[in-house]
């Protein structure tokens, strides 16, 4: 199915695939059947597959141009994507008591918060930057809807997660946030975080995405 109907269907399946499997009573059943790691792997694979379908469906929707693509938009998109890759590289695998699910809160040291001192929800911030980068570079209506929804989801998600984690942890959440905020912003406790290696990995991923973009998406991101 192509056109707006296919785009709407892909969007509906995307949201259902990201909400139904993680809600009780389905999630406990799936985790018992697949194991926690198996469930995580299957859920990740499903998410990537449906996201790919959604992006393809957006490309097949009727072209309704809202704004043309200008050279500055390309450069801005590349810069925003670099920032998104660096944020993700500095955050992945690090404990974060403010994130959804807690992120190994017991291993988090408020005196060495790393990227969490600068951005409390770095992965959602990276998603928002990714959406903004692609929103700038794609002025067709379907892509504006697609990336606008992702960007709004990321920004709203930060507030919703803060509210949920504050409710779950109470005074401990407030104390941890205050302890993190007390750390110097310019040197937010990087010890043990291997920031140099992570920054190099972020740049490598950014370069890899640029190289793969025309092969996977069909459009080159470079000027």
Report on this model:
With 223 residues, this protein is mainly alpha-helical. Helix content is 67%, strand content 0%. Helix 4 crosses helix 8. The radius of gyration is 19 Å and the shape is globular. The two termini are 32 Å apart.
Helix count, DSSP H or I runs of 4 or more residues: 8
Summarize the helix and strand pattern as letters. Answer: HHHHHHHH
Radius of gyration: 19 Å
Span of the ends, CA to CA: 32 Å
**Low-confidence regions:** none
Number of separate strands: 0
The structural class is: mainly alpha
Topology:
Blueprint: H1 3-19, H2 26-34, H3 36-60, H4 71-91, H5 122-137, H6 141-169, H7 171-181, H8 195-216
Helix pairs in contact: 1-3, 2-3, 4-5, 4-8, 5-6, 6-7
């Amino acid at each position: 199915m192509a056109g707006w109907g296919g785009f709407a269907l892909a969007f509906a399946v995307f949201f259902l695939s990201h909400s139904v499997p993680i809600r009780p009573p389905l999630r406990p059943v799936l985790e018992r059947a697949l194991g926690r790691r198996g469930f995580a792997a299957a859920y990740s694979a499903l998410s990537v597959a449906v996201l790919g379908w959604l992006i393809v469906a957006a490309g097949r929707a009727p072209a309704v141009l809202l704004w043309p693509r200008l050279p500055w938009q390309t450069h801005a998109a590349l810069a925003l994507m670099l920032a998104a890759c660096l944020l993700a590289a500095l955050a992945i695998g690090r404990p974060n008591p403010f994130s959804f699910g807690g992120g190994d809160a017991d291993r988090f040291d408020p005196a060495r918060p790393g990227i969490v001192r600068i951005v409390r929800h770095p992965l959602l911030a990276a998603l928002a930057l990714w959406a903004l980068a692609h929103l700038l570079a794609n002025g067709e209506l379907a892509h504006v809807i697609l990336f606008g929804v992702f960007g709004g989801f990321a920004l709203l998600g930060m507030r919703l997660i803060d509210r949920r984690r504050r409710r779950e942890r109470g005074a401990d959440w407030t104390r941890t946030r205050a302890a993190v905020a007390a750390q110097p912003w310019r040197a937010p406790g990087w010890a043990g975080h291997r920031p140099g290696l992570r920054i190099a990995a972020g740049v490598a991923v950014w370069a890899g995405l640029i190289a793969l973009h025309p092969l996977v998406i069909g459009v080159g991101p470079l000027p």
